[in-house]
Fold this sequence. Notes:
This protein has helices at residues 10-21, 33-40, 51-59, 97-106, 126-137, 155-160, 175-185, 201-232, 236-244, 265-278, 286-309, 337-347, 360-366, 376-380, 393-396, 400-403, 421-426, and strands spanning 2-6, 25-29, 64-67, 78-81, 115-118, 142-145, 165-169, 196-199, 318-322, 351-355, 371-372, 385-388, 411-414, 430-432. The longest helix is centred in the middle third of the chain and has 32 residues, at 201-232. The model has no long low-confidence stretch (mean pLDDT 97). α10 packs antiparallel against α11. It has 2 domains: 2-199, NAD(P)-binding Rossmann-like Domain (Rossmann fold), CATH 3.40.50.720; 201-437, 3-Layer(aba) Sandwich (Rossmann fold). 48% of the residues are buried. It is globular, with a radius of gyration of 23 Å. The N and C termini lie far apart (58 Å). By secondary structure, it is α/β, with parallel strands linked by helices. Bound molecules: uridine-5'-diphosphate-xylopyranose. The site of uridine-5'-diphosphate-xylopyranose has 20 residues, from α8. Belongs to the UDP-glucose/GDP-mannose dehydrogenase family. Its EC number is 1.1.1.22.
Amino acid sequence: MRISVLGCGYLGAVHAACMAKLGHEVVGIDVDARKISELSLAKAPFYEPGLDELLAEVQSTGRLSFTTDLSAAQGSRVHFICVGTPQKKGENGADLTYVESAVTGLLPHLSPGDLVVGKSTVPVGTASHLADRVTAVAPDADLAWNPEFLREGHAVSDTLQPDRFVYGVANSSSQHLTVELLDEVYAGPLSEGTPRLVTDLATAELVKTAANSFLATKISFINAMAELCEATGADVTQLADAIGMDDRIGRKFLNAGIGFGGGCLPKDIRAFMARAGELGADQALTFLREVDSINMRRRSRVVELTRALCDGSLLGKNITVLGASFKPDSDDVRDSPALSVAAQLQLQGAIVTVSDPKALRNASLRFPELQYEPSTELAVKGADALLLLTEWQEYRDLDPCELVDAVATPRILDGRNVLDPAKWRAAGWTYRGLGRP
Ligand code: UDX
């Protein structure tokens, strides 16, 4: 099948490559010429494990191409909308400019029988409004909402081995054709044994925001428990292990630390609250305000703990921050808790050096005032305190005995609770975790 993918960011580039891997003929379209020229050379414009290899594999078959020219969508049977929906500047709601302009640009190229499929995360109600726009111009075309649940760092495997498919379809006589067409798109090993739910448009939109809100709530719940553990001398990692053994709770997403960041969870819960307000249902989501503030409180807590670790003053202290991306295996620094902490420490008089295996270019664009050092060995030299804020494997594997002579004072704050306190203490370090004694 010929498919177009509008928007070639974290979601679209991966989706385009995976659709070509399934055997479809895919054109990826984006307004960003730099992104398109890199993708055309089988080079992902961001770091995502396995994506460069997949791009090279499918591009060599001739089934995947990239362009800035929207008219290339003409002739495709299915058009995926994969553009970003960032937070509006100075407001909590989602900025739908890119979604609206992608649909506006696509409309003149639609043919009868085409299907427009939204994958971006949007406020509930957006899909039905877009469906009206599509059918007003192309009465024989249709629109479905098919949310994407991929995680950065696992984007390729999450797309090729999804947990479930959600097809949000409009209530119309052609509903079954839409479902059949989506089944045809995903036919093959990707969909074998994968549950599929067919819903209305609003439910499909809500599934995505509800899922991300639940995940954010789980993280803030355990971080709230970390606050209590800190007040009582209990250990939040043991607490999480113990409650996580209950199947009804589950251990995943119960890692206490400096909290969640990234391009999805923070802005999605805020956009969800804003939308609920517009719908007169804001009371239903007031708990998300608390989820957000527990999360933001973690960052200030790390700053305070660092000050305490540095004998009560940050002024002139050399602090090394290990990790800049919002999570490991990604170079994405959007709303990164690590960089937010680094910037706060610097504002309060510390001399901060940030290291990261992949994200330093993006980090320096966002926070040019910070100092960056790609080599861990050089970054830790002479430090008064180390802060592990993004749990890249190479930081988990650091050897406290090797490091102890490189720093000025062996003090470490483990913002992700991934190090073994006993091992670090035995090597002469003052170790501080979050929510651990
Ligand atoms: C998220 C959703 O998981 C995904 O399904 C959706 O499609 C997009 O949003 P992503 O933003 O890639 O994916 O990252 P995720 O793995 O969910 O992590 C989000 C943040 O939560 C990271 O900053 C991570 O460090 C943090 N986190 C995660 C915790 O602090 N504790 C945990 O236990 C888990």
